[in-house]
TrEMBL record:
This is Reverse transcriptase zinc-binding domain. InterPro entries: RNase_H-like_dom_plant, RNase_H-like_EbsB-rel, RNaseH-like_sf, RNaseH_domain, RNaseH_sf, RVT-Znf. The lineage of its organism: Eukaryota, Viridiplantae, Streptophyta, Embryophyta, Tracheophyta. Residues 22-115 form the Reverse transcriptase zinc-binding domain. It comes from the Eukaryota. Gene3D superfamilies: Ribonuclease H-like superfamily/Ribonuclease H (3.30.420.10). Residues 219-340 form the RNase H type-1 domain.
Length: 373
């Protein structure tokens, strides 16, 4: 700075604009520049840590839609109220879940609602030192978690975000405990699929559990007649409220074994889901062999190979498809429907209803779910 030969008075100048006068525009530019460079410097010096976060996320054995949602969460691409406000789409910025603070992705993570859900699930968050370093905070938090806890954490954030969206768009009045139960059961199903170990199921699941959000759960079962070599498939689709969306019974001739009968029922469940236009689907049954083969990505070499191939080829119909094994008590409605099928000579389908005895059984499932609220 050149020195003056005279003795002028001190003056406050704004060095971030050539006019040396403050303007909102130059203030915004300065803030963006300073915070970005801080982030860039800290990210460059911790690049391995960030890499670990992304590779840990993409390696998790969970549906891609959940990983993509979490990635958008990390990148601040979610339509939070603050992001919608910045895009001039939304006027209110308050958090949908607690109404307390502005709804940023950062706030969603540390929202009292989120921390309460996470603490019920055994996950304790520690506070980051500054909001600007939250990506680094997230990576160091991930570093402390084992794979199972990572799955639980990522699925929880996805569940909370879906819960928040349902609250806005569907005016849903699901309780927080209901959400905790859903996350536990969903992670239980994922773990059981990943481990290919059905022994985890009976202990954790004795009752039918509804799907979350827009996902539809289709239960299937088969009634096999060894004398006449016939079978009857029972398939029933229910939504997150436990309501029947569609149901069907389908007879099959020349069925050599109960396994083939169950494979037909699984295919029938997929066809019902496709014909009804469901996009995100869980196919659930008590036939462990069929569920394991449906989940196995490799070509099947058993006598069921042509049917397993049909099951695999139907994956393309859906944006999200999960196969889940449950014990018989969780599959009572589909079982009953398969038995009812014996009364009908041809295929029968119902939309938003089912035979009275089946509706009664579905209501029983729903009552048990409602009782947990
Ligand atoms: Zn909040």
């Amino acid at each position: 700075m050149p020195l003056s030969s005279s003795n002028p008075d001190d003056a406050i100048i704004w060095r971030f604009d050539s006019s040396e006068c403050y303007s909102v525009k130059s203030g915004y530019r300065m803030l963006a520049h300073v915070s970005d460079s801080q982030i860039i410097v800290s990210i460059i010096s911790n690049v391995d840590q960030i890499k670990r976060l992304y590779s840990a996320l993409w390696s998790l054995a969970i549906p891609t839609k959940i990983k993509v949602m979490f990635w958008r969460f990390i990148k601040n691409y979610l339509p939070t109220n603050v992001n919608l406000y910045n895009m001039r789409i939304h006027l209110a910025t308050n958090c949908t879940l607690c109404a307390g603070e502005a709804e940023t992705v950062y706030h969603i993570l540390f929202c009292p609602f989120t921390t309460s859900i996470l603490s019920h699930l055994g996950i304790a968050l520690f506070l980051p030192s500054s909001e600007h370093n939250w990506l680094l905070w997230l990576s160091s938090f991930f570093d402390q978690l084992d794979k199972k806890k990572m799955v639980l954490f990522v699925v929880s954030i996805w569940g909370i975000w879906t819960y928040r969206n349902n609250k806005i768009h569907n005016q849903m009045s699901q309780s927080a405990m209901d959400l905790v139960r859903f996350i536990k059961s969903y992670v239980g199903e994922l773990t059981s699929i990943a481990d290919n170990d059905a022994s985890l199921c009976p202990a954790s699941r004795m009752h039918w559990i509804p799907p979350l959000g827009d996902t539809i759960k289709v239960n299937f079962d088969a009634c096999f007649n060894s004398r006449y070599r016939t079978s009857f498939s029972g398939v029933v689709a229910r939504n997150n409220g436990g309501y029947i969306m569609a149901a069907g019974t389908i007879p099959h001739l020349f069925v050599p074994s109960p396994e083939v009968a169950e494979a037909y029922a699984c295919i029938d469940a997929l066809m019902l889901a496709r014909d009804a236009g469901f996009n995100s689907v869980i196919i659930e049954g008590d036939a462990l062999t069929i569920i394991n083969k449906a989940n196995c990505r490799e070509a099947d070499r058993s006598v069921l190979r042509s049917l397993v191939k049909q099951i695999h080829s139907r994956r393309a119909f859906f944006a999200s498809l999960t196969f889940s094994h449950v014990v018989r008590t969780c599959n009572a409605v589909a079982h009953l429907l398969a038995r009812e099928g014996r009364d009908f000579p041809g295929p029968r389908f119902w939309v938003e209803e089912a035979p009275p005895s089946v509706e009664e059984a579905a209501l029983k499932d729903k009552r048990w779910v409602d009782l947990q609220n």
